[in-house]
Design goal:
Helices cover 36% and strands 14% of the residues. The structure holds pyridoxal-5'-phosphate. Pyridoxal-5'-phosphate (PLP) binds next to helix 3.
Length: 368
């Protein structure tokens, strides 16, 4: 059996999501026999030389892409971003509580987990307007004694994204960047910690990337009762190898990082490309004379997840069907908000977006 690449469609799914074809091909080539190892990546000990090299290289590439200072920490963990919702408060939420921004479904879930651990200070909520925008600095207050401020850089479901690092009154920022990590340059010195499930923009499901400033790590609350796998100290001290790490997922993330560095040319380059793709879709929405109704406020529009409605649910259903027939999948909006959503992550080719806006215009001509 050979690869049927010409049968690949444009995948607008929110996650697990599209991966670069060159990455998939390289993985396919090495799947049965990793060069020099005589076995698949999946068959090798996580404590052996080959895997050690793969993990170290992935970490080195990530450090280069983020300009990460040597003392800061990179971890490859399991349990998805959702496990981070629990781990963050378990390790860092102190007597004065932590601050949370309620920007949509994901931040709400993160906040619910923090409430199990201790005091949560809700600094801002976008609930009333259906999570269609984000606050400006000055529209919210962060208690300077807070353990941390939790934000979600990109709310995947609603399609709203911070295009700046929000003000935090000196409090360390913990950021869930699951759906926009590595889509733009990041000034990590402004964060205490960033975490991201890999399956949206960085690789396959099964691994969660955690980047933590050492200054934040030093604030970790010691505990004898915290389960060992839920303790960041375990993973920092054992370099993500306390137990069997998700070897194959880390290998895939390594290939995606190589693609980003060597084929794309880094975060500045991918950011340009992502902005160009997003502009094309938003332009199609804005020039539709109200046929397409965007969910997100203009200034907070996500460049990763574009959300909009059509005049009726029937038309939305029909659009999704026609898109599938035209080689585009994953355009149905999340069940909690409905409508349509185009996830246009790093690996979604520009041609995919061109085909999408072509269908949008044609569909409107026939149904508008
Ligand atoms: C998908 C997503 C999550 C959940 O990730 P899992 O890895 O499935 O736990 C959390 N936060 C954001 C912003 C997401 O997009």
């Amino acid at each position: 059996m050979t690869c049927d690449c010409e049968k690949r469609v444009f995948n607008f799914s929110a996650g697990p999501a599209v991966l670069p074809v060159s990455v998939l091909k390289e993985a396919q080539r090495d799947l049965v026999c990793y060069p020099g190892a005589g076995a698949s990546v999946m068959e090798l000990s996580h404590r052996g030389k080959v895997i050690d090299g793969i993990i170290k290289e992935a970490e080195a590439r990530l450090r280069r892409l983020l300009n990460l200072p040597e003392q800061d920490h990179v971890m490859f963990l399991q349990g998805g971003a959702t496990t981070q919702f629990s781990m963050v408060p378990m390790n860092f939420l102190g007597e004065n509580g932590a601050s949370y921004m309620e920007q949509g479904t994901w931040s709400k879930k993160a906040m619910a987990e923090a409430k199990r651990v201790g005091k949560v200070d809700l600094v801002w909520s976008g609930k009333e307007s259906g999570y269609d925008h984000l606050p400006k600095d000055g529209e919210y207050q962060v208690d300077p004694n807070s353990s941390y401020l939790h934000i979600t850089s990109n709310e995947t479901i609603h399609g709203i994204e911070f295009h700046r690092v929000p003000a935090s009154n000196g409090v360390p920022i913990v950021c869930d960047a699951s759906s926009d990590f590595l889509s733009h340059p990041i000034d990590f010195s402004k964060y205490g910690m960033i975490y991201a499930g890999a399956q949206k923009n960085c690789g396959p499901a099964g691994v969660t990337i955690v980047v933590m400033a050492d200054s934040f790590y030093q604030k970790l609350i010691p505990s004898e009762t915290r389960p060992i796998m839920m303790n960041y100290k375990t993973h920092v001290e054992n370099k993500s190898l306390y137990n069997t790490c998700p070897v194959f997922s880390i290998y895939m993330v390594g290939l995606v990082l190589k693609w980003l560095e060597e084929e794309i040319g880094g975060l500045d380059k991918i950011y340009e490309l992502n902005k160009k793709k997003a502009a094309l879709v938003y332009e199609a929405i804005d020039s539709s004379n109200g046929f397409c109704r965007p969910h997100a406020a203009k200034e907070d529009r996500s460049i990763m997840n574009v959300t909009w409605r059509l005049p009726s649910e029937d038309l939305e259903k029909k659009f999704v069907q026609e898109a599938e027939a035209a080689g585009m999948i994953g355009l149905k909006g999340h069940r909690s908000v409905g409508g349509l959503r185009a996830s246009i992550y790093n690996a979604l080719p520009y041609e995919g977006v061109e085909r999408l806006v072509e269908l949008m215009a044609d569909f409107q001509r026939r149904n508008g």
